[in-house]
Amino acid sequence: MATFLYKLGRLAFRRRHFVALIWVALLTLAGVGAASAPAAGTASFSIPGTEAQKAFDLLEDRFPGMSADGATARVVFKAPDGEKMTDADNKATVEKAVQELSDGSEVASVADPYQAQAVSKDGTVAYAAVSYDVSGMELEDSTKEALEEAAQNARDAGLTVEVGGDALQATPETGTTEIIGIAVAAVVLVITLGSLVAAGLPLLTAIIGVGIGVATITALANTLELGSTTSTLAMMIGLAVGIDYALFIVSRYRAELAEGRDRDEAVGRAVGTAGSAVVFAGLTVVIALAGLAVVNIPMLTKMGLAAAGTVVIAVLIALTMVPALLGYAGRKIQPAGSKSKLLGGGRKSKNQNSQDSQTKPNMGTRWASFVVRRPVAVLLFGIIGLGAAAAPVGSLELGLPDDGSQPTSTTQRRAYDLLSEGFGPGFNGPLMLVVDAKSSDDPQAAAATVTDEIKDLEGVVTVTPAMPNKAGDTYTITVIPDSKPSSTQTEDLVHGIRDAGADLKADTGAEVLVTGTTAMNIDFSQKMNDALIPYLALVVGLAFLLLIVVFRSILVPLKAALGFLLSVLAALGAVVAVFQWGWMAGLMGVEETGPIMSMMPIFMVGVVFGLAMDYEVFLVTRMREAYVHGEKPSQAVVTGFRHGARVVTAAAVIMMAVFAGFIGSSESMVKMIGFGLAIAVFFDAFIVRMAIVPAVLALLGDKAWWLPKWLDRALPNVDVEGEGLRTRSDDDRKDPDEERELVRV
Questions:
Q1: Is 172 within 8 Å of 82 (Cβ atoms)?
Q2: Spatial contact of 671 and 663, defined as CB atoms under 8 Å apart
Q3: pLDDT tier at 252 (50, 70, 90 boundaries)?
Q4: Alpha-carbon distance 403 to 426, whole Å?
Q5: Per-residue pLDDT, 103
Q6: Taking burial as the number of CB atoms within 10 A of a residue's CB, which of 12, 77, 146, 204 is the most buried?
Q7: Which of 516, 490, 504 is nearest to 432 (CA)?
Q8: Is residue 738 pLDDT above 50, yes or no?
Q9: What is the pLDDT of residues 687-705, one digit of tens each?
Q10: Alpha-carbon span 680 to 427, nearest angstrom
């Protein structure tokens, strides 16, 4: 592989105009596609194989006019102090608002509060339920404006009016912190690479790669039903890995220049060595993201595949466009150790002065030497520290965000609070029971029996009368719990209804199914839990095999996987501490604590594993490179740190800055993902890879690189260390037929 990538790098360097033109054309094509594509509709949310989804599908089949996936709005009215909603003036205001809400062309129905008995017992709060024919993302602006105008007119008449539901769903905003994250990445690149031009290359190529990826997602969003979170995730991961992969190529290029090689030869060697690590690091990320398909939730599968596609683009750009831009930069990029005039250039590279390089070891060398001398102490310190950070995982509660987790500044959250105040906390999470009585001898009697049985369950406040479909073989029943939607009490009630439904089916022949947003969330969380172990086994197993091929060792990949488990558990502990316990919640902009998003554990397992293996590959390949060339195991660890620690540190800081930039998002899910990934990178890069890994390798010695002879013979030799490049003669390196050979390959 190293030889192939060496040729590819030199070809891109020499044919830079052609390579740059291809990527600009791809970016233009994706941009045109995104601009001309129809507006994205709603992202379909389905959970195959769950009871809630089965009930949802049954509703669409038996109640075709219900618009089960249509947008909804609850316009909540509260009377001024000392008044009631039943007062004549307030009643007239509400009825006028109901009339205004009914006028829209996309409105399916509006329930008058006074006819639907939607007035609180104390008479202070009432609500009008509005149903639409289309989803929230498909609503026209005029429909949303009419909804807001009707609410404002009622406010002007003296009532407090708020609007809940998904009809006013807004596109998440990331805020200025995302820009700050990119700015931090730029500063780190300048410090690491020593010049503005060198620092600009990774940023430019990463932005181009993300631009192609996100534009492609936008172009296909309507066709594939991709949500806004899909492009946000792709941008987050694509930007981080895009910068990192380009950084590794540019850093190795500068190191090769410092050894006195010509620029085209330095590019070839940089892509042949660091590029090999980029390919395998990218493969681990792609495996982790694409592996989300094993969960069998279409939305999550689409998110993973879209992000994986962006990572593939980042790898291809690092292998082709970065060498091309290095050709354009020419002498503006100096050898390692040199700096531009702007940053105090003119000094000779330390690599050019052997005495200086021997007498003044860098920080990575000093740290690695310390770890090699005190491996047990460093190992214990790292494990205990991560164990303490992981402790909050023991109280992890999973759920999905609802309007109750929105900032208090939003009308959705204020409507949620008003409904809780007037009707009880469970009113925000009603359960819908679907009674399939098609096989029952007396469907009406079966529905009545179900209603009476559910009324007696603990935790039930209200049960509405059963409503039949036109055929009279299916009924819907609404159950109001006495607890809020995201509570464990509501979850227990859902399971209690389902247990009772099994007995009712035996008695009446009717099947009772529980659905609704709250039940869907509960089933989603359960499916996430059930899929975690199979997913972990699949992703870690495939990556373990891949790392055996890369490192030609059993213990090094095993150590990498165990270290990852430590870092992901510690990161999940930090997420629980902030978003569930409320530690530093104000600093993170978390206005409401609550259960951790259901997909967070499995999502972090996938993404963090991929990113963790990035640092493992980049750092440990340098150590193996030194070991296979004759250095002792402990010295190889130090050598690996001398060459790789500075760049890996910079890459980790950049990735943390990019992820942390998404903490400013208005979307709670994006905020949580940004924080979780940022803290996970910190734990994995600086504690696991920089402390635990060298300590373990120092303790293992030669055993770290042991591989059974039969397995060594069976494995393909991918030559990540670039050993094949060392045996090439100068004449071979300058063979003009290389380009034609590469094209044929």
A1: no
A2: yes
A3: confident
A4: 13
A5: 84
A6: 77
A7: 516
A8: no
A9: 998 999 999 999 999 898 8
A10: 37
| Ordered alpha helix ranges (H), 587-632 | 600-628
Q: Which H or E run contains 399?
A: strand 398-399
| Nearest partner of 502 among 51, 171, 24, judged by Cα | 51
Q: What is the 3-state secondary structure (H, E, C) of 108-158?
A: EEEECCCCCCCECCCCCEEEEEEEECCCHHHCCHHHHHHHHHHHHHHHHCC
Tell me how crowded residue 370 is: count the other CB atoms within 10 A of its CB. 14
Do residues 648 and 623 lie in contact, with contact meaning Cβ atoms separated by under 8 Å? no
Please give the sequence-ordered ranges of beta strands (E in DSSP) within 94-242, or none if there are none.
107-111, 125-132, 160-165
Q: Which residues contact 122 (CB under 8 A, 6 or more apart)?
A: 84, 422
Task: Please report, for residues 280, 411, 425, the alpha-carbon distance to residue 407 in angstroms, rounded to integers and kept in the order given.
Answer: 41, 9, 17
Q: What is the CA radius of gyration of the chain?
A: 30
* Residue entry with tokens 């005039």: 341
CA distances from 87 to 99, 119, 159, 358, 419 (A): 18, 12, 12, 89, 19
Amino acid letter for position 89:
D
Q: pLDDT tens across 511-558, in order?
A: 999 998 889 888 988 888 888 888 888 888 887 888 888 888 899 888
Q: Residue 280: name the closest of 288, 253, 532, 652 by CA.
A: 288
Distance CA 272, CA 722 (A): 6
Rounded distance between C-alpha atoms, residue 13 and residue 733, angstroms: 14
pLDDT tops 90 at residue 79: yes
Q: At what angle do helices 668-682 and 555-575 cross, to 10 degrees?
A: 140
H/E stretch holding 448 reads: helix 443-455
pLDDT digits (tens, 9 = 90+) for 441-486: 898 999 999 999 999 899 998 888 888 988 889 999 989 999 888 7
Distance CA 630, CA 633 (A): 9
- Residue position matching structure tokens 């803290």: 679
Q: How many CB atoms lie within 10 A of CB 553?
A: 22
The CA distance from 242 to 303, in Å, is 18
Token pair listed for 202 = 């990774």
Token pair listed for 724: 């094949």
CA nearest neighbour of 7 among 275, 278, 336, 312: 275
Q: What is the mean pLDDT of residues 573-592?
A: 85
Nearest-angstrom CA–CA distance, 674 and 670: 6
Q: In terms of pLDDT, which residue wins out, 731 or 595?
A: 595
Residue 29: other Cβ atoms inside 10 A? 14
The confidence score (pLDDT) of residue 744 equals 47
First to last CA, the chain: 12
- Interhelix angle 263-290/517-551, nearest 10 degrees: 140
- C-alpha span between 413 and 163 (Å, rounded): 9
Q: Phi first, then psi: what are they for 660, rounded to 5°?
A: -65, -25
